[in-house]
């Protein structure tokens, strides 16, 4: 596999949120591209291009890492204007998630993968290529992730395709 084919990220799959997030995407009716339901996830850490050795080392680290369960209320819409992304996230991220993000970032840094977070902002991307000035207040969507996945992102003409390479269950 060529190194440019191994663009990776860590995220919590959000398949069980497809019904409420579909309703939200339709209700918002924003310009831009809706993220397909099978690609919805709560990002933990973007790793970028990884060598097979870096990937194997990261997977070994994650095999040994305690992964706490947590719950959160996705109650806030936001925008990354420069990226043209509209997202849904928690206004009060749970401490267990924030601690896990810090731990994973330190492990990634030690392995030489990923870029340091300015400040981790947990979110689920709902739209891309979207420009909007105002976002409405929404009803919270409750979410309890069941697992963490290492995804490969392959860029295509139709947009990125995600494939879960490995899944780790979260503690109850």
Automatic annotation (TrEMBL):
A motif (HXTX 1) lies at residues 41-44. Keywords: Hydrolase. GO terms for molecular function: 2',3'-cyclic-nucleotide 3'-phosphodiesterase activity; RNA 2',3'-cyclic 3'-phosphodiesterase activity. It comes from the Bacteria. Pfam families: LigT_PEase. Its EC number is 3.1.4.58. Residues 13-87 form the Phosphoesterase HXTX domain. It catalyses: a 3'-end 2',3'-cyclophospho-ribonucleotide-RNA + H2O = a 3'-end 2'-phospho-ribonucleotide-RNA + H(+). A motif (HXTX 2) lies at residues 123-126. The active site is at residues 41, 123. InterPro entries: Cyclic_Pdiesterase (IPR009097), Phosphoesterase_HXTX (IPR014051), RNA_CPDase (IPR004175). Transmembrane segments: none annotated. It is an enzyme of class 3 (hydrolase). Belongs to the 2H phosphoesterase superfamily. ThpR family. Hydrolyzes RNA 2',3'-cyclic phosphodiester to an RNA 2'-phosphomonoester. NCBIfam families: 2_5_ligase (TIGR02258). This is RNA 2',3'-cyclic phosphodiesterase. It comes from Oceanimonas doudoroffii.
């Amino acid at each position: 596999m060529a190194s440019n084919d191994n663009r990776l990220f860590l995220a919590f799959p959000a398949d069980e949120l497809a019904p409420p997030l579909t309703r939200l995407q339709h209700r918002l009716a924003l310009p831009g591209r809706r993220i397909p339901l099978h690609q919805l996830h709560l990002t933990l850490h973007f790793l970028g291009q990884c060598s097979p050795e870096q990937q194997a080392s990261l997977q070994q680290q994650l095999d040994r890492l305690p992964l706490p369960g947590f719950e959160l209320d996705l109650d806030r819409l936001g925008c990354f204007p420069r990226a043209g992304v509209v997202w849904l996230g928690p206004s009060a991220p749970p401490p267990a998630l924030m601690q896990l993000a810090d731990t994973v970032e330190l492990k990634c840094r030690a392995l030489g993968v990923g870029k340091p977070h300015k400040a981790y902002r947990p979110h689920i991307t709902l739209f891309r290529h979207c420009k909007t000035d105002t976002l409405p207040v929404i009803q919270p969507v409750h979410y309890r992730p069941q697992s963490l996945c290492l995804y490969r992102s392959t860029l295509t003409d139709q947009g990125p395709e995600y494939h879960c390479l490995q899944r780790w269950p979260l503690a109850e």
